[in-house]
Amino acid sequence: MPQGPLVYRQRLTTRITHWIWAVCLFFLMLTGLQIFNAFPSLHVGQESGFDYDNAIFAIGAREVGGEVQGITRILGAEFDTTGVLGVSQGEVRAFPAAVTIPSKTSLATGRVIHFFFAWVLVITLALWLIASALNGHLRQLVPTLADLRALPRDLKDHARLRFHHGASYNVLQKLAYASVLFLALPLMILTGLSMSPGFNAVAPWLLDVFGGRQTARTIHFLTMLALVGFFAVHIAMILLAGPLNEMRSILTGWYRTDGGKND
Amino acid sequence: MIDRRKLLLGGAALALSGCKVFDSATANDSALRRLFASHEGLTRATQRALIGDSPAPEFTESDIRQGQRPNGSINPDGAAYRQMADTAFREYRLTVTGLVEAPVTLSLSDLTALPARTQITRHDCVEGWSCIAKWQGVPLGTVLNLAKPKVTARYAVFHCFDAIERNLSGEVFYYESIDLIDAWHPQTILAYRMNDAPLPVANGAPLRLRVERQLGYKMAKYVHTIELTDTLATLGAGKGSYWADRGYEWYAGI
Question: Which of B16, B131, B247 sits opposite A109 (nearest CB)?
Answer without folding.
Answer: B247
